[in-house]
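Hey, quick one: can you model this chain's 3D structure?
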Amino acid sequence: MAITFLKEGTVLGTINLTGDVIFAKDGPKSIQTKIIRRSKIIVDKALIKAKPQIEMAARIAIGQAIRAEKEYKSLIGSQHGDLRAVMGLDNAVQRVNAIIETWLDSTKVTLKKTKTSNGDMEASLRLTMGLADYSDVFSKAEATIQTKKRQSLEWLKALLTWGDKIIVYDYVVFEGNFRASRSGRAIMSKRLGSRWNVPSTYRGTVNDNWLTHALDGIQPKIEAIILKAFTKGQ
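Sure thing. Here's the predicted structure for all 234 residues.
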């Protein structure tokens, strides 16, 4: 006997059930009880065994998705207009990867005990990552830079949540190989009436930014990871 997993009518996989003996004299209710009892044991064991596999595979998939986004490439890039230059990021690769590793380290799987009721069985797990307000990454030293005037610029917060908010007034960015530049790629020069904010291509808000874009595109992959680990863990 086996449990079959379906999604919108499509068979995703099965788990074989063994262990309980069903006798010919058993009535329908007794048979159902034995099947559900055995199924619950199998499912709980499979979930517990699959948990570390899911976490590891999910972290790899999420890391790949984050690094595939245009924001990551621009933050560590060296082309004209890249965020690395215009935001003045020194040690850009180290900074950005420290942020990503914080997100990945926070990726956790939480299991809920399998429930049975009226012949039905419900098993669930929850995959979470980071804090909804991003405070875990905003608080990192790598998320803030010091300007030449010793002012703090929260570049990550600006990128992920500030949208088109003006960040610097009366200054304009000039790109080039400047010795005085933190990034080595651009400097800000005073110009009354000028305004600077995150380039429109990369602007993010709390619910629509670099991270959310990356996560939106990998849901099918995460589902496949969960199913593979679950059926393998039986």
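One thing worth noting: The longest helix spans residues 28-68.
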